[in-house]
Description:
Pfam families: Transferase. This is Anthocyanin 5-aromatic acyltransferase. By secondary structure, the protein is of the alpha+beta class. The protein has helices spanning 33-36, 56-77, 122-125, 133-137, 188-206, 234-247, 271-279, 290-309, 354-357, 362-379, 392-398, 455-470, and strands at residues 8-16, 26-30, 44-50, 84-88, 98-102, 107-114, 131-132, 147-152, 155-161, 163-170, 174-181, 262-269, 319-327, 345-353, 403-406, 427-430, 435-439, 447-454. The protein is built from twelve helices and 18 strands. The chain has a six-stranded mixed β-sheet with strand order 1-6-10-11-3-16, with helices on one face. Helix 8 crosses helix 12 (455-470).
Amino acid sequence: MTSGITTVTVLEHCRVSPPLDHSVTEKLLHLTFFDIFWLNWPSVARVFFYDFPCSKSEFMQTIVPHLKKSLALTLKHYFPFCGNLITPTCLSNNTTPAIRYLNGDSISLIIAEFSGNTSHGFKHLSGDQDRDVDDLLALIPQLPPGYTNTTCEDDSTMCSPVLSVQVTLFPDQGFSIGFRNSHVIADGRSMSNFIRTWACINAKQLMGVDEYDNTYTIDLPFYDRSVIKDPKGIASIFLRECLQMASENSKAFPHVAQSKDLVQATFKMNRVQIQGLKNLVTAQYPYVSTFVVACAYVWTCMAKARMVLGLKMNDENEVENFIFMMDTRERLDPPIPLNYFGNAALNCRCSLKSIQLVGEKEGFLNAVEEIRRALDEKINNEEGVLKGFETIFDVIKASKGRRKFGVAGSPKFDYYSTDFGWGKPSKYEVVSEKFGLVGSRDSDGSLEIGLCFSKDEMDVFTTIFTQGLMS
């Protein structure tokens, strides 16, 4: 397969700023402990595909100008995306981590054209079958490099961009919009709101509506950081841990490598199949969510695939960790607005031995039970969902060396409603995450599961996943 690096030609590289507001020279959005938690996490990559055949001239003369104008108007309300993440570089620096926006700041926007083999073009890359991860990553920009601002030997700060966007034309087939963002600035809900706001403004713009501020179908961001209470000083604890890890060149979380030999594929799970999984545990759990059974099923399929491949299965008592995030906006005391901008998700961790996951039916039941336990531990305790969160880095360090993976995304974030005025996306994907989860395009209660493995692992996993849903 042709390397993704050679399949895209950059047509234009520009910067997009919100309209200038001369009454404001600087805005600071301080980080909470929810944000600081992600300081050592790699950036997040996602891409939308739009099946809208157009020529290069129409793309450059009509689609791109509208997208630039609507993006600038959207950034008026989402100004932090134009700013820089400001963090201290050492423990002796007293700089408070924040997103700093200066009047005139902008984001990087790349306009590109797919120039590879048409057999590996729009239909292929937006399909469900195995695709080379590097080919998908060619549709997603890198974040521009940051820089260190040094005033003295022990007083330096790192300034890092937090968002970049790339729009790629597939001539006479369609186009894609790729995003790369720092997880520090926004969780899935905040990113979803930003992208859908941009889409809404663009769609209204195409209809000739000029009063953009009165046309939103979703709430604009809520920025008041005072709603996040921190009586235990969790922010200081997390910052110290993250800076220590950075000094040791250590990541809090392993991330799937962005390299050749990795492929990405999409698996579908319809309502009948989801209900079938729920029926397997009805006796023990009369109600179990779609999210829980989907995650439990993928977790067990992964363990079985490793067993078939003989990967690190010499010790059947080896502990495996599964990690998922829980949105706390409605669960904090007091609750915070759903349109709160930033991060507000908790790290939930599940642990089982390998042998507990590979049983024909008991493996799935064990996984469901463990995921439910992790949820109940956060939800049903008298001290609230933040109980013990200040010690999460101790838990992470204690699990070093163990097999672990997490799920990115949630069926709650309706990415398939992201209509820029040319129809809803034909495909949405989080790229290079080992396990991504999103509601289906058909909005019928089905799921789309994105997975990223080596080719050998993907082949075995596909067989196990498909056969399990048929039994």
